[in-house]
Amino acid sequence: MSRMDKAEKQAFAEAVYTIARLVPCGRATSYGAIAKATGYANMPRMVGKIMSQCDSEATGVPAHRVVNSQGILSAREAFGSNGEMQQLLEAEGHTIINNKIQNWKTAFWNPLDEIQL
Question: Where do the domains of the chain lie, and which CATH numbers do they carry?
Fold first, then answer.
C-alpha cells in the first residue's frame, strides 16, 4: 500500500499501539517487527513515526520498548534530552551502552512468535 487515507492511518496506528502494549517489561521490540506483525512489513518508518509521536502516559503504550532493528535507541530524542528512554529501559533491567540495548538477541521480543494475531 503506497498511500493510506486518514482512516487507514488511524487503524494502522491503533494496530501499532495494540502490539506495542503487549511488549513485556524487560523486553523490547523493533519498528520492523511491529510493522511485520501488522501486515505492513514495508512500513517500519511509519511505525517509528507513530511511536515518536506517542504520549505513553495518555495511551498506555510503552513506547520506550520499541527501538530499531539492531536494538539502538534511535528515537531517544522523542523522550527529551535527559535520557529518559535509556532510564526507562535500564529501570526494566536492560543494559544500554552507546545508545544500544546489550544482549539484543535475548532482549528482542518478536510479536510474530509471541502472540497470536
Answer: 6-110 (1.10.10.10)
